[in-house]
Write a structure and sequence with these properties.
single chain; mainly beta; globular
């Protein structure tokens, strides 16, 4: 399998990474700067793209490690911001790594006229896939932003999935409860999904997915910047392929105020393991 800049059947460019020792691979699309695939050395795919996704550039790709920036969810600009629907630029690449850049354009300035520079790096290591979101304020005036990786992960079937981490006893925002959401307390140590989910777990950033169907675990290692976890699944929506993915999102929910000349880093790695 060759590494390098590729074009899919619909004309969209992506970067293919291949690890020379393990045979692990990853694919990163320039549209949205989104990682759409991570296959480990055993041949297991961990990143999901929805069956209803458009891979021709007509809309943001529904799936992958999708960027929400500079806004998470609804707000003053378009849903989840613009990072997921602009073309990022390849700054440098090797067989196992790529660095993508997103700078202001006429399109982004109309919505959000700030002097930013975003760099997203993906590094295919022997035993994990490491990512870094680096945000710089190139201007003199401060600006506020939210950030997230709206990560879609593969699931053999939801009935086989458990999500563990430091969830038990913590408060979370259940966006689907009550009138516009309500705070609830998580009673479970391992979360299973049997209904539609849109839940914000602030201050929790150590989720581990365990899939009994594949015998694999996936640890989401949020080591800098990403402080919160959002769990999302459109339970029952066959068109979205709900039973074969879960979104376990790495989020900075409270806005970051970035002074002129300052920077912010979000580090997230995906580490496969075996479910013992």
């Amino acid at each position: 399998v060759a590494a390098g800049l590729m074009t899919n059947a619909d004309g969209l460019e992506y970067v293919k990474l291949v690890h020379p020792d393990t045979g692990a691979t990853s694919e990163v699309y320039l549209l949205g700067g989104v990682v759409t695939s991570y296959v480990d050395g055993d041949g297991q795919e961990f990143i999901a793209v929805r069956p209803d996704a458009k891979m021709d550039g007509s809309k943001p790709i529904s799936g992958g490690l999708s960027h929400c920036w500079p806004q998470f969810g609804p707000g003053e600009i378009q849903q989840h911001g613009f990072a997921r629907n602009v073309n990022w630029t390849v700054k440098c690449m090797t067989e196992t790594s790529v660095e993508l850049e997103m700078a202001p354009s006429d399109y982004t300035k109309e919505m959000w006229d700030k002097e930013f520079l975003c760099t997203f790096s993906v590094d295919l290591e022997a035993d994990q896939l490491s990512t870094k979101m680096f945000v710089e304020n190139k201007g003199e005036e401060s600006f506020d932003f939210q950030a997230a990786l709206h990560s879609y992960f593969t699931v053999s079937a939801l009935e086989n999935l458990e999500i563990s981490g430091s969830f038990e006893g913590k408060e979370f925002l259940n966006k689907l409860a009550g009138d516009g959401g309500e705070m609830q307390t998580e009673e479970r140590s391992a979360i299973t999904i049997t209904e539609e989910y849109d839940r914000v777990y602030k201050g929790i950033n150590d989720p581990v997915l365990k899939d009994a169907g594949t015998g694999k675990t996936l640890s989401v290692l949020n080591t800098a910047g990403w402080e919160d976890t959002v769990l999302w699944n459109p339970y029952g929506d066959e068109g979205m392929g709900y039973n074969n993915f879960v979104c376990v999102e790495s989020v900075k929910f409270d806005p970051v105020t970035l002074a002129g000349g300052a920077s912010w880093t979000g580090d997230m790695a995906l580490k496969p393991g075996s479910a013992e």
